Q: What sequence folds into this?
């Protein structure tokens, strides 16, 4: 191997691109193969990786700047409405769905193919280097290296070389690996290298990126999330997607892969500062899973924000809370029914909006039933403040609850097959006259309104609801392991220094007449960060000098062995 | 606890909060003063005669001029030293201002740290729970990193450009972002806040230094190019440290800050898993953090790719810092996501 290679082969560009060069005269097949090979070489070059990295950053940008369907459905829809010209185009281009858009996938798949294509040969190369140690060849001209020095000592070339080698090997953990060679002109070369762990770290880092990507992909395929609002005193059993208000499964999820469990919410507690800022949330729940299902065995637990319940693969989170006003309706025929429905919080003081829909009022049947549905629609405020006829809340605790409601009678339009928000009525039904407003009132607990037909609606009080989420991701432990390796590898890759040093020891022709004069040329190369090698290099040069004393016979033990 | 105890505890808290506000103002004053002193130092270098001018001066003129004469054509900065050798004998007023600047920056840094500590005592939690506190912490880290850099490598000459973002950010923190000491909403009551935000603030503070060094690198290499064509010989820019020194500062800060930033993102993901039920959900804040991360990975790659070293790499590092600032200000205050901890509304 020519000396040049031993230096430049350490250069990443060369390492990455030292694929065999294609032959000269070839048939079409060979040309095709050569082209493919060329393409592959391009793809796996560091420059391509760099460009792809930027493309990935660029491709993620709309995901940070524009609302996304996956994280904010309502906001995205609103954005499209607000921007009627570009909105639909952005939507068509997938800019509201960046992270599942095909062009986004193309960029990261190319990047990861490039990564694997680039890492595999590097791994073999590194293994080979670790096995064989540094090549014993030295650059012809050590004085061209970034660090170099020449010292003159007296002694025997072979023994000095052995001494330098031994000292290098002793110096510290993860120390130098060495090789010694006598060049044709009689000079003895000691080549040494250290910091292989840097490259090990680098490979670990890049491979764990691949591991992380795989974990994310598997999690996305087999994982799911479901959210449900549960009012104090109620519960839910998670055995199928229909148990949830909103269920977001990965493509490979089905009901049979879900772990069944049941949860009852006994109570919810919140505490606030006098300014209305929350200080604690806590839901007291009972749950059962596995063999306990269907029995009377429940485990109790306080569920808090930042402190999920983890059991049999699933996790249960307390995500939010709000109020469920309760009403009692006394129908003209004397029947009494109670209704409770979570209202959606609109601000930090929990002014909430919602609707109670009575689809089957007693006393009607057939088509009549459809024409006489009831809806109680409006605002709930835990601490009611009425300004200018508008009710809002002055404090998040239920100090003085109130509702401001409109009562509608008519066809709620639920049969159309289009799902309705549980927090609102279909205003189109009001607009087309199918649903008619019958009354409006601001009520405190215990107060009531009576409609023309004698139906009496009483605001009976309020309970709290909690918003719970079940999450399942079978690969998240793998993601964690990947990411731990990633950080460890990264630190190795960035903080360990990989260095080479060569000593060329030959009898000194310029020091004529001095028997045993040796010229020791030392050259050093730091693979990346040059800074800081200076001082260390000086001590490496010193290794050769310190031998002078032994060579002069001051150290009998050494002198004896060396002869 | 008796009522009197409760009251005295409240008094101590109020006192701590007051001390925190005052020391923060002190820190700001320190940074601004340091900025001004560096500006004087930087401008004063013009007073040192440049090679051509001093050629006309008799050889027995001031020591500084002689030193420069003998070094004609060679940039003193390239020697990695702060001052031309001749000026060491009799420090000029520029240098005195420079030294004062570092001292005052040191005082500002100390005040900044004190302010954070007393804030933590007043609020009874880690003092990085809202934007005011986070930016304050970032400034302290950047100032601390700068003090280390200025002691290790002789790079006081870029002090003006380092103190500038620090002074601006601490001013913004003290005015626009300021919020009185208080408790945190339940969503933020987590030890992950302590870990995650601390790592974010420390790495961002260090990357601020990295970004400034990269910007100065670009300015300096551009100047070198112009000077190569014979222009700008008397420019103040000749006083910037050499490109090598600047590149090294940028790289050194990046290789420490990047793993830390990586850790910060991972800690954020672990927190998200505990708080929101998924470790990654493409929230705007998360997405921007990923972009930042990719940019810095790009910076490190660029430094190892021929054709991308030098100015291109430096531009990437600047972009990286821009995306940190974007994430801190624009994403928190304009784009709404789950990360609404700004404490501004
Ligand atoms: C997912 C995308 C990637 C990320 C986030 C990434 C990140 C990094 C980081 C942080 C370093 C450390 C830089 C240093 O040692 O100074 C690095 C080094 C390196 N990367 Fe990547 N990388 C990615 C993709 C790739 C690809 C596709 C290739 C191959 C074509 C590649 C090849 C290398 C090489 C050869 C080094 C060593 C450079 C050196 O030792 O200075 N990387 N990478």
A:
């Amino acid at each position: 191997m020519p000396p040049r290679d031993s230096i430049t082969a350490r250069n990443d560009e060369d390492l990455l691109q030292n694929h065999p060069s294609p032959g000269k005269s070839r048939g079409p097949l060979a040309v095709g193969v050569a082209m493919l090979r060329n393409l592959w070489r391009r793809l796996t070059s560091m420059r391509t990786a760099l460009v792809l990295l930027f493309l990935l950053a660029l491709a993620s940008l709309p995901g940070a700047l524009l609302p996304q369907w996956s994280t904010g459905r309502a906001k995205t829809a609103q954005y499209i409405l607000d921007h009627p010209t570009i909105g639909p185009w952005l939507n068509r281009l997938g800019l509201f769905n960046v992270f599942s858009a095909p062009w986004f996938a193309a960029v990261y798949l190319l990047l990861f193919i490039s990564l694997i294509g680039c890492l595999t040969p590097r791994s073999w190369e590194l293994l080979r280097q670790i096995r064989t140690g540094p090549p014993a060849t030295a650059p012809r001209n050590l004085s061209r290296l970034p660090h170099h020095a020449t010292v003159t000592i007296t002694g025997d070339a072979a023994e000095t070389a052995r001494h330098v080698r031994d000292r290098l090997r002793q110096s510290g953990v993860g120390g130098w690996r060495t090789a010694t060679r006598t060049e044709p002109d009689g000079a003895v070369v000691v080549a040494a290298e250290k910091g292989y762990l840097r490259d090990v770290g680098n490979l670990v880092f890049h491979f764990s990126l691949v591991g992380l990507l795989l974990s994310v992909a598997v999690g996305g395929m087999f994982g799911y999330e479901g959210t449900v609002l549960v009012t104090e005193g109620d519960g839910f059993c998670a055995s199928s997607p229909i148990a949830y208000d909103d269920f977001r499964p990965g493509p490979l999820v089905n009901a049979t892969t879900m772990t069944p469990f049941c949860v009852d919410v006994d109570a919810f507690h919140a505490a606030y500062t006098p300014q209305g800022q929350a200080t604690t949330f806590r839901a007291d729940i009972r749950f059962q899973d596995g063999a306990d299902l269907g029995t009377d065995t429940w485990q109790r637990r306080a569920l808090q924000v930042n402190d999920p319940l983890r059991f049999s693969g699933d996790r249960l989170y307390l995500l939010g809370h709000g109020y469920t006003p309760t009403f009692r309706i006394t129908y003209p025929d004397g029947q009494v029914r109670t209704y409770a429905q979570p209202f959606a919080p609109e601000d930090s003081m929990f002014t909430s909006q919602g609707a109670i829909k009575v689809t089957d009022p007693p006393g009607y049947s057939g088509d009549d039933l459809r024409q006489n549905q009831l809806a109680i629609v409006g605002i709930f405020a835990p601490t009611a403040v009425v300004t200018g006829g508008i009710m809002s809340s002055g404090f998040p605790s239920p100090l003085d609850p109130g509702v401001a409601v409109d009562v509608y009678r008519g066809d709620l339009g639920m049969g159309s097959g289009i799902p309705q928000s549980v927090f609102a009525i279909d205003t189109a039904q009001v607009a087309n006259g199918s649903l008619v407003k019958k009354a409006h009132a601001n009520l405190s607990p215990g107060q009531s309104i009576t409609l023309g037909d004698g139906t009496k609606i009483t605001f009976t009080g309020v309970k709290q609801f909690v918003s719970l989420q079940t999450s399942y991701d079978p690969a998240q432990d793998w993601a964690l392991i990947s990411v731990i390796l990633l950080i460890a590898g990264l630190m190795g890759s960035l903080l360990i220094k990989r260095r080479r040093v060569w000593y060329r020891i030959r009898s000194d022709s310029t020091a004529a007449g001095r028997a045993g004069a040796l010229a020791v040329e030392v050259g050093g190369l730091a693979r990346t960060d040059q800074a800081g090698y200076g001082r260390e290099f000086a001590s490496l040069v010193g290794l050769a000098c310190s031998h002078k004393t032994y060579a002069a016979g001051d150290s009998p033990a050494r002198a004896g062995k060396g002869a | 606890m008796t009522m009197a105890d409760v009251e005295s505890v409240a008094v101590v808290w109020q006192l701590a909060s007051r001390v925190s506000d005052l020391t923060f103002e002190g820190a700001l004053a320190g940074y601004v003063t340091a900025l001004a002193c560096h500006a004087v130092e930087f401008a004063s270098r013009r007073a040192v005669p440049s090679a051509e001018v001093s050629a006309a001066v008799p050889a027995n003129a001031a020591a500084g001029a002689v030193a420069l004469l003998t070094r004609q054509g060679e940039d003193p900065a390239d020697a990695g030293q702060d001052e031309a050798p001749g000026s060491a004998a009799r420090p000029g007023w520029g240098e005195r201002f420079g030294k004062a600047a570092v001292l005052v920056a040191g005082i500002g840094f100390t005040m900044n740290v004190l302010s954070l500590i007393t804030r933590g005592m007043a609020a009874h939690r880690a003092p990085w729970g809202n934007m005011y506190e986070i930016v304050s912490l970032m400034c302290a880290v950047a100032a601390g990193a700068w003090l280390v850099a200025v002691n290790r490598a002789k790079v006081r000459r870029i002090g003006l450009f380092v103190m500038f973002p620090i002074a601006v950010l601490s001013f913004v923190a003290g005015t626009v972002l300021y919020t009185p000491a208080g408790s945190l909403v339940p969503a933020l009551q987590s030890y992950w806040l302590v870990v995650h935000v601390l790592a974010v603030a420390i790495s961002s503070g260090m990357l601020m230094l990295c970004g400034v060094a990269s910007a100065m690198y670009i300015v300096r290499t551009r100047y070198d190019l112009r000077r190569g064509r014979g222009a700008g010989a008397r420019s103040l820019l000749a006083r910037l440290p050499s490109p090598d020194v600047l590149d090294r500062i940028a790289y050194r800060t990046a290789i420490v800050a990047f793993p830390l930033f990586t850790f910060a993102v991972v800690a954020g993901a672990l927190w998200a898993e505990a708080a929101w039920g998924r470790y990654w959900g493409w929230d705007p804040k998360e997405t921007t953090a990923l972009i930042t991360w990719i940019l810095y990975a790009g910076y490190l790659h660029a430094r190892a790719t021929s054709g991308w070293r030098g100015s291109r790499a430096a531009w990437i590092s600047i972009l990286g810092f821009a995306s940190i600032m974007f994430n801190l200000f624009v994403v928190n205050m304009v784009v709404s996501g789950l990360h609404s901890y700004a404490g501004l509304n």
Summary: Residues A 12, 44-46, 49, 53, 111, 114-115, 118, 202, 206, 209, 490, 493-494, 528; B 297, 300-301, 304 surround protoporphyrin IX containing FE (CB under 6 Å).
